[in-house]
Amino acid sequence: MDRYRGSADAVRGLVQETAVHRDVYIDQEVFELEMEHLFANTWNYVGHDSQVANVGDYFTTTIGAQPVIMVRHSDQSVRVLYNRCPHKGTKIAIDGCGNAGKFFRCPYHAWTFKTDGSLLAIPLKKGYDKTGFEASEAVKGMTPVAHVKNYRGFVFAKMSDHGPDFETFFGHSLSSIDNMVDRSPVGRLEVAGGVLRYMHKCNWKMLVENQTDTCHPMVAHESSAGVAVAEWKKVSPDGLGPKPMAVEIFAPFISSYEFFETMGIRVWDNGHGHTGVGHSIHSDYSSVPGYFEKMVGAYGEDRAKAILGENRHNTVYFPNVMIKGPIQLLRIFRPLGPDKTLVESWTYRLVDAPDLLLERTLVYNRLINAPTSVVGHDDLEMYERAQEGLRSNGNTWVNVQRLYDPAEQAQAEAVTNGTTEWQMRNQFRAWSKFMTMSM
Questions:
Q1: pLDDT single digits (tens) 151-195
Q2: pLDDT tens, 317-365?
Q3: In a designed cystine with 169, which of 32, 164, 182, 269 is the match (CB 3.0 to 4.6 A)?
Q4: Are residues 282 and 404 both part of a single domain?
């Protein structure tokens, strides 16, 4: 018997103001409802338009559980299509990227489609004469995703007509994308350095929560970043002289509670938010020769200082994306099951900026986010322990009560203590809203 399907009240009952029921993380039916409702009613990151730079270029990915294709159409617009032939349902493009030329061709029966999805040709078309084919769904071709928005190169899509428009959904949170793009002297990014993929045996929401969890770094990462810093101190006990790039990256992970408290967290409506309002783990990286001068030349000194003075740590775009503006990195947490998540870490080049910036981004990604990383394995072990522990019957609720204030429910945007769990509560309020608005 279904416990949650068809019952918005039952789903809402999984989220209290300061606690979340374990079924949110471990229940198969809840996961299926997320695929049907949450990911349909929200705006989801699809890809970057630099991945489809030329007409006919395409990139395959997923929105929730739905396979889609991002493609550059002949009018230079970026389209997002369901990756499905309207004939027999065959996936049109295999996973990856390529160039379709002027049309997509189904590998099963050779139906062809323009890059906007419209039907181009069918072999032996006369076989459909007088069958009513012209009134069928198949004649419409590949179905486009209902709503698509290209925001400064970042392509988002929403599958459902439910839920807010793009600007309402993201609001002021788009300032984090603005800052990341503006760090290029010409205001443009491009995907560079490939992608790192890393499987996690845990629920996808654990990773999203962790992006603004600032009470764990000095604990979970003591055995990795802490050891790296201790070894560096043996080499340079006085701390003088330039630090290697790896040490600069590792060291802030074991900063004090006070460092993270004063860092601050900004909370936005609809589940978005970011750590690092006043400062962050990226604040004290070494300067890159020639970069500031290029920025001043492009923006003027005051504007250049304002752009580079923003050192936001992790910006969460609900439901499942995080970006790091200061080092041009994006992570997407792809749900594959209630206890299985594929993490993708993408890196970007600041166009017309010194190459050393991209080098730092790539080094960070490999040290922190790769399957062979040091820091990432600390988090992975905690996620998997939590996934196992949640099946214990000793307590069926997860606590998210730190620094709770009932007045926060009425605030669409706020800046607060950097170790609060407000942003986690914010995410679950959004989860409840978007899960149930179409039930």
A1: 999 999 999 999 999 999 999 999 999 999 999 999 999 999 999
A2: 999 999 999 999 999 999 999 999 999 999 999 999 999 999 999 999 9
A3: 164
A4: yes
Measured CA to CA, the distance from residue 7 to residue 13 in angstroms comes to 10
> Do the Cβ atoms of 157 and 147 come closer than 8 Å?
yes
Q: Same structural domain for residues 420 and 327? A: yes
Amino acid, single-letter form, for residue 287: S
* CATH (domain of 68): 2.102.10.10
One-letter amino acid for residue 177 of the chain: I
Distance between CA atoms of residues 236 and 214, nearest Å: 28
- Smallest CA-to-CA distance from 146 within 438, 390, 363 is with 438
Instruction: Judge contact between 281 and 255, C-beta under 8 A.
Output: yes
Q: Number of folded domains in the chain? A: 2
pLDDT at 1: 59
The pair of structure tokens assigned to 39 is 């990911």
Is pTM beyond 0.90 here? Answer: yes
Domain check: are 237 and 285 in the same one?
yes
Question: The sheet that has 147-151: what strands, in order across it?
Answer: 44-48, 154-158, 147-151
Q: Is the pLDDT of residue 402 over 80?
A: yes
Q: What is the pLDDT of residue 142?
A: 98
CA distance 195 to 356: 19
Expressed as residue numbers, the domain containing 251 is 189-436
CA angle 36, 25, 433 (to 5 degrees): 50
Token pair listed for 277: 């309002």
What 3-state DSSP class applies to 270? helix
Strand, helix or coil for residue 220: helix
* CA-based max dimension of the chain: 86
Distance between CA atoms of residues 273 and 427, nearest Å:
9
State both tokens at 108.
């099963």
- pLDDT score of 55: 98
Q: How far is 210 from 431, CA to CA, in rounded Å?
A: 16
Q: Does residue 319 have a cis peptide bond before it, meaning omega lies within 30 degrees of 0?
A: yes
In DSSP terms, 300 is beta-bridged to: none
| 3-class SS of residue 163 | coil
What CA–CA distances, in Å, run from 298 to 86, 183, 301?
48, 10, 9
φ, ψ for residue 107, nearest 5 deg: -75, -5
